[in-house]
Amino acid sequence: MIDNSVRGRLVIRTAVPAEAEAVAGLMVRARSTYYPDGIPEADADWTTRWRQAIENPDAHVLCAVDQGRIVGMASFRTPPDSAADTVVLFQFHVDPDRWRSGIGTALHTACAEQWRTDGKRTAVLEVHAGNHRAQRFYTRQGWIPDPEHPPAEGDHHLRLRYAVTGE
């Protein structure tokens, strides 16, 4: 697991339970930018959910920290119903105030390094169909539409795939 990865003044490391509130706040700020009618489950206890995710021994929650402030986060794991060499990127957010500053690219690089270390060959994610900014970011990182899961009529999310090993 990544303990600390320094990229300039940015530190990417494993989140700790005490940071659940900051991680939840970042997620809500970022998701609010692409859900025009409000984020799903807006009244959920996101701090508790993030604390559980951070404490889950089968999951990884990485955070990008700049000058003591969490400015990015990524959450991934291999669900029990997935192939052992496949990882699912469940959440990936950069603080909207810091978009286009290189944080997302550095965080994605750290994720890919962890996936290689863990022996993963493929990563998958679902991105909101209306979140074109995120779709462009993922395309730049090498993600492609998942040929095994093409979007169906009325889908609100697109499934993307990433070859971890570069194959």
Describe the overall structure.
The chain is α+β, with helices and mostly antiparallel strands and about 170 residues long. About 30% of the residues lie in helices and about 30% in strands. The protein is built from 4 helices and 8 strands. The chain is globular. The two termini are about 25 Å apart.
Mean pLDDT over the residues: 88
Main sheet summary? 8 strands, mixed
Rg value: 15 Å
Number of beta strands: 8
Termini separation: 23 Å
Topology of helices and strands:
Layout: E1 4-7, E2 10-14, H1 20-31, H2 46-55, E3 59-66, E4 69-77, E5 86-94, H3 103-117, E6 122-128, H4 132-141, E7 144-145, E8 157-163
Parallel strand pairs: 5-6
Antiparallel strand pairs: 1-2, 2-3, 3-4, 4-5, 6-8, 7-8
Helix pairs in contact: 1-2
Features:
single chain; 167 residues; alpha+beta; 31% strand; globular
What is the compact description of this entry?
The chain has 167 residues and is of the alpha+beta class.
